[in-house]
Design brief:
Elements (H helix, E strand, L loop, with lengths): L51 H8 L5 E4 L6 H9 L3 E6 L9 H7 L3 E5 L5 H7 L5 E7 L4 H4 L25 H7 L2 H12 L4 H14 L5 H11 L2 H4 L9 H12 L1 H15 E11 L2 H14 L2 E3 L6 E3 L5 E3 L9 H6 L7 E7 L19 H7 L5
Parallel strand pairs: 1-2, 1-4, 2-3, 4-5
Antiparallel strand pairs: 5-9, 6-7, 8-9
Helix pairs in contact: 4-12, 7-8, 7-11, 8-9, 12-13
The chain binds S-adenosylmethionine.
Length: 380
């Protein structure tokens, strides 16, 4: 999910800026998580997980071993266990996500196991836990409120803090990228990962500013971006904060979020048992395009004839459980504004073998080679 980048919609339930956010992009997604360090009571989740009821309904009955690749505050894991999963492996690349999980672990005994790691390796993680094949995999993409609302994590342009943005606390930070990449590389990241129309002028401003002094705080970067915008967008009162897209782009680059998504989808295909379910909740078009294309390749459909209904083609490794992405109902959005840009795609594994994945065929933006090389080897 993304930074709280838009003015709150008039009818949205209240939620002061910074409260209860659990974020994707690019829209505001106030909601789950209160960002507090104290563990929540088990019967009072720190946030309302998005679209979990739809996942449970489409995947019913919930049985066997599931892997929650984006454990966060544990909302999905909790719901899966309560719905009948015998065992849930909760994976998060941010070890701090597990800070609040002790009550949940205690409530479900040995049925919940927590593993620090990336969902791009979920098949290896499940293998090491003796959990293969899996009966279900859920991915709820983005960052959590616990990450966004802590200034020291450096995700938010609304709170001044170190320019970090690493979910996993390893590898280059956003400050490192901003210091090291060329103007061209920065512009490509802003354009491809942030869909920022003013990528080139922002990149130019960043390069000019870092010659004066290193850019090490979120506040300074946000100010540089705002000043680089044409006055209409840089001014106050706009619907979207001028730094929204740039922060989104850098966060995606720092955490290789889209590469992780491609690896995670392929790993889920390898790890799921026939009949197992893969559910992915996305929050912006770059993510959704990748998931949509993955399922289009893996769950091909044919027209029987010109007028006939479309049906599943034989040989696909997944069968779609819904033809169109599931969106939150008006009631869910009213209760949880973060849900308004969420899209659930969900499919059931067939017996067809897994196959290799071509990232570019899924719509993964290709960065200039130098940026890719610099980012190689990043962990966490
Ligand atoms: C939106 S939150 C998930 C919230 C969770 N569904 C809940 O109900 O509490 C996303 C979480 O996924 C984690 N995450 C993001 N990308 C990841 C990746 N590639 N591998 C593992 N964890 C990841 C983030 O650190 C964050 O804690």
């Amino acid at each position: 999910m993304g930074e709280d980048d838009r003015a709150p919609p008039p009818a949205a339930p209240p939620g002061p800026e910074g409260e209860g956010r659990h974020v994707g992009l690019p829209a505001e997604r106030p909601a789950n998580g209160n960002g507090a360090a104290a563990p929540p009571p088990v019967d009072a989740p720190p946030h309302v997980p998005v679209l979990i009821d739809a996942i449970l309904a489409h995947a019913a009955p919930i049985r066997g071993t599931w892997l929650d690749g984006t454990f966060g505050a544990g909302g999905y894991a909790r719901a899966l266990l309560a719905a009948g999963a015998e065992r849930v492996i909760g994976v998060d690349r941010d070890p701090l996500a597990f800070e609040m999980a002790a009550p949940l672990e205690a409530a479900f005994g040995g049925r919940l196991e927590l593993v620090a790691g990336t969902f791009g390796r979920l098949d290896e993680i499940a293998g090491a836990a003796g959990a293969l094949p899996l009966d279900g995999v859920v991915l709820d993409l983005g960052v959590s409120s616990m990450q966004l609302d802590r200034p020291e994590r450096g995700f938010s342009f609304r709170h001044d803090g170190p320019l970090d943005m690493r979910m996993g606390q390893e590898g280059p930070s956003a400050a490192d990228l901003v210091a090291a990449l060329s103007e061209e590389e920065l512009a490509a990241i802003l354009r491809l990962y942030g869909e920022e129309r003013h990528a080139r002028r922002i990149a130019r401003a960043i390069v000019a500013a870092r010659e004066q002094a290193p850019i090490t705080t979120t506040g300074r970067l946000a100010a540089i971006v705002a000043a680089a915008m044409p006055s209409r967008r840089g001014g106050r009162g706009g619907r979207i904060h001028p730094a929204t897209r740039s922060f989104q782009a850098l966060r995606i680059a720092v955490n290789d979020e889209l590469g992780e998504l491609v690896r995670g989808l392929a790993a889920a295909e390898r790890a799921l048992a026939p009949g197992g379910v893969l559910a992915v909740v996305t929050f912006h078009s770059l993510e959704d395009r990748i998931v949509k294309r993955f399922f289009k390749e893996r769950a091909p459909r044919v027209h029987r004839n010109r007028y006939g209904a479309e049906e599943a083609a034989p040989g696909g490794s997944f069968e779609l459980l819904t033809r169109k992405p599931v969106e939150a109902s008006g009631a869910e959005i009213a209760a949880n504004p973060r849900a308004r840009s969420a899209r659930l795609r969900i499919a059931r594994r067939t017996e067809a073998p897994a196959r290799s994945v071509e990232p570019e065929s899924l719509g993964l933006p290709v960065l200039p080679a130098t940026a890719g090389r610099r980012r190689k080897g990043r962990g966490g």
